[in-house]
Write the structure tokens for this entry.
Amino acid sequence: MLEAERKQGQFPMLEMSHLLYGGKEQFDKFIERQSFFDNHPMFKVNHDFFNLSRQDQILLNAEKTVEAMKKISLEDPNYYTPNVLCPQGIFISTVHFAMVIPAFQVLASDEQIKKWMTSLKNFSAFGCYAQTELGHGSDVQNLQTVAVFDKQTCEFVIHTPNIEATKFWPGELGLYCEFALVFAQLIVDGKGYGVHPFWIRIRDKETHKPLSGIQIGDIGPKMGYAVKDNGFMSFDHYRVPLDSLLNRYIKVNREGKVERQGNPKVGYGSMMYMRNILCDQYTKFAGRALAIAIRYSLYRKQFKDDNKQEIRILDYQCQQQKLFPLLAEFYACVFGSVKIKELVNDNFNKISRNNDFSLLGLTHAVLSGAKANYTYFVANCAEWCRLSCGGHGFAHYSGLPIIFFEMSPNITLEGENTILNLQLARYLLKQLQHIVSKPTAVPSFFKFLSIETAKVDDVTSLDGLVTLLGLNCANLTKYAAQKLMSNPDLKESWDTKSGIALAKAASTFIPYFNMLCFVDTINNKAKDTKQILTVLARIYGITMLLNNMQGLLLKNQLSSQDITTLQDTREQLYPIIRLNALCLVEAQGLTDNSLQSLIAPKEGDVYVNMYNFASKENSLNKQQVHSGINYIQKMREVNAKL
């Protein structure tokens, strides 16, 4: 049924695949790893997985982690395919490789790296990232766990002073890890020196039981990440040696003398690394959801045309409106994430190799905005894809609910999205000042803030859309700045008067940034894919403006005729995407096993797939007469007595 759709594609698939994965080498590596998952019996999708208890799901996921380690390198930062491809679960090594090891590389001294790095990489020292507390998450500087230096013994005393200070949510803490990178308030001679990381053994090497003075457990079921053992941990005056403090940037000697060096914000380095993974890798889940929804929309037919032929639901304009803007945004986020990864890696290398912090502010700002934008997009995309598939989208066998459940927590973890937008807003205001005081210091991505007005001949062209998106953000940033400065108490103004305007301004930066990256990809990387990518880019830019044009309306820089033109042009571009829709999602190279969906196979009968699962594979049907029928009889007996 789908072969005709594939033949009408108007671009070379392989070139598009290379663009989506950042190059031929990365795409080939993806296909190689995907082949491993496809051919290993343990990683075949089991649609009955969701009938298992959480305990059984956790154990199965641990077994899968061991099997995967035998063949692929889970710590490879170039492409985190295990998270994207592993059916029904995220490997238990994720936090260890994505947060603990990067934190060590940035925060530990050369001596500490030499002592621990081999053990970290071979799992002899398996750790978690214990920062968030029950009472504090985004507000890192006000964490309440303390590490008090004891001069008499040259030890730090780690203590949880109250319930709120309990470490809460770290992945791999509840069941597995033996060590923890614990972030605590450093106190020496009664003086506080801020929050710093301590590398601590928390479980016995032989018995795996929590060590005396430490209480640990799993926090329980949650929305998404069912197989992840997010845990809690509290300390009762637990003593650790002097070298537990990761001391590249702060040192405490045996006499209690504290020495600082470098940028105190370096502690955010490992969190940046994880945020980069959320932008770079987890964005791919939106592509998976779109592949399912678009394939299903080609299989599914509803209602008849004038020739008495049933119509594929993807041929309906309203279905295209649900899916095609999301498809365009997926491509925009992928191309944006490629640039962000370059920026993050450059910053990481400058800090770790040369103690150079010149890119830290820019990287933090762009990554904060991107994490907020991309994670919301992925969850929203998964939900709209689920809705676009009607009733079958609700079933786990569609492969869509799990994407929504697993991706929704990312909106909050590693930086709550509203907070991150406000951090980007702070950087926008700083660059707005620099536009006047020292314009040469403004990074190229933020020079648009100097724009006051612009004459755009064609509001739907790539250049016109870039200009308008930049102007929209610039106007909203200036509006937010005016609101902030209207109150003499800037702290109060930030918290209670201008927060909405600041977050709004920040939320419009990433669409502009993505559009720049999209256009750069078209101009400098694409060859025979230029035409279809230009159509997608125009749909993306138009959609971003139609979704949020407040900054342009504030200055009357967009007319009602312009808005009509934007709407009409987007609708006129949909037929081009309709011809190429299947090829655009299949350029990701995802196999049926990776899609994990019965409603979107590469070939076959979706209805037979669904019926066979319900009638033959659903374990709830293994008993011809379920034991629960006894309760129906009891209900009748109770009713008879009423």
Remarks:
- The chain has 23 helices and 13 strands.
- The radius of gyration is 27 Å.
- The CA atoms of residues 321 and 565 lie 16 Å apart.
- The longest helix spans residues 317-354.
